Amino acid sequence: MSKIAVVYWSGTGNTEAMAKAVEAGAKDAGAEVSVFTSDDFSASNVGEFDAIAFGCPAMGAEVLEETSFDPMFTSVEGSLSGKKIALFGSYGWGDGQWMRDWEDRCKAAGAVLSCESVMANNEPGDAEISACKDLGASLA
After folding, report:
1. Which of the listed CATH numbers 1.10.10.10, 3.40.309.10, 3.10.310.30, 3.40.50.360 matches domain 3-139?
2. Which of 3, 29, 31, 72 has the most C-beta neighbours closer than 10 Å?
3. What is the pTM of this model?
C-alpha cells in the first residue's frame, strides 16, 4: 500500500476542496493518505511518504502563497529529488504562470511529476474535481 501525503494551503476553500478530491482519489486507488496544511508539514516528513501532492493557489503576481506555503515548500525542495509528486491549485486571474513556474521549480529539484498539474479558475467545478481525483489515483 502506497503512503501518500496531501499538503496544501487554502485561503478561500477552493484549494482545500481540491485537496479533498485528491485524497479521495488516492484512497479509492488503495493508498494510505495523510492530509496536512502547509503549517503542519516539513522536510522531516518527506521520507515518510511514497508520493506527495502539493496544493497552493496563485497569489499576488501569480506566485505561491508567501507566508506559509512557500517557506514550507522551500524547506522541502531539497528533499524532493526522485520523489513522485503532483501539483494542484486554484487561481482567479492570469493564465496559470504560477503553476508553470512551480512545475519548473520541482523539475529543477529533481522531483518526478506523476501527472499533469490541475488548475481551477476560482471554485473547482466537476471537471477539476474529477481531475484531482485522477491526480490522487496517479500517486497511489
Report:
1. 3.40.50.360
2. 72
3. 0.97
